[in-house]
């Protein structure tokens, strides 16, 4: 209840209304004190009129008049003459004098607060202007205990009334908030929960109906998000089904092409000149087809597992890779050179680093071999305070514009005829698993350089 929006709103409303009432209470209690003192002055003036009517008053009557007025004596100034009209014994000396004729609001408030905070009974002198201009001033002497008790009684009644008003206002606002805010918000939350449970169920998509502008905007934003997400989920499902079908086709096609490649090895032995001339092209075409099938199957597997980080010697991995690539390259005129320091040790997954560098080296070797000229692929490395760096450079023709625009995009970033672009996509994914990246430093007629960054820290560079 208290942690809910409406519950907290109820508490805050009660607190704020009480605070407002307290701010009203201070000037109210000051005004009550002023009215109380003015009433005493008016009663004293009325009592003094009796003396003006009859100069000789009995002592008992004078005492009764003073008691009814709530004062000890009355002084009236008329025609510049100060005259003691009524008097009685004062029990103690006068503590203070208050002039109400020109007192400011600040003075009245401070005097009232001081009186509330001062317990006990004191004798004070109060000066004011007579009503109906019956003189220049009237002055009375009175005790403060009845004044303070009256002020406390008035203050308690004000605070009780404020509490009732606060609670009543808070309850009304509580009901209004639940009706116009909390209920629509719960409706939006309900749509979210229903959609999260079954995204494919169209009944879980919200129908904007709120009358409040901000809630209406939230509902419309949620509707757009749900619509786009539903479309993306359907598209993802279709792509998953298509990917599964492609993987199955690629698997069977790879087996068929492998068998066909065995037959082409015999065709190369034919005595027919035309057959001997066309056989290598057939073999190359099948090799490219098998490579595409293998790449598709590799990319279509489940997400790559997290790397098993260990301290590894990079030069040993590079030497194994170069030996394998020289065999795979056959008779091409591409030299693969290692410029990796023999004592460079980095923290990474050896198998995944092998695959990253292998994909970059193979792309570079095939690009250089495609030119028909001699060329070199160089693997180098260095480190700084933040990361280890592995670079693969070649002397090839550079990447075409289409390959640069679709770098690291599967099936679109191929740089050579028949290439799929899967090598770069796989290398980038494996590097991201290490918290690093694969980036293109430069490309052109003089060659291409790719950099692999492996952070030493938490993966941020």
TrEMBL record:
One of its GO terms (molecular function) is kinase activity. It comes from the Bacteria. Residues 248-458 form the Histidine kinase domain. InterPro entries: HATPase_C_sf (IPR036890), HATPase_dom (IPR003594), His_kinase_dom (IPR005467), HisK_dim/P_dom (IPR003661), HisK_dim/P_sf (IPR036097), Sig_transdc_His_kin-like_C (IPR004358). Residues 215-242 form a coiled coil. Its EC number is 2.7.13.3. CDD domains: HATPase, HisKA. PANTHER family: PEROXIDE STRESS-ACTIVATED HISTIDINE KINASE MAK3, SENSOR HISTIDINE KINASE. This is histidine kinase. The lineage of its organism: Bacteria, Pseudomonadati, Pseudomonadota, Alphaproteobacteria, Rhodobacterales.
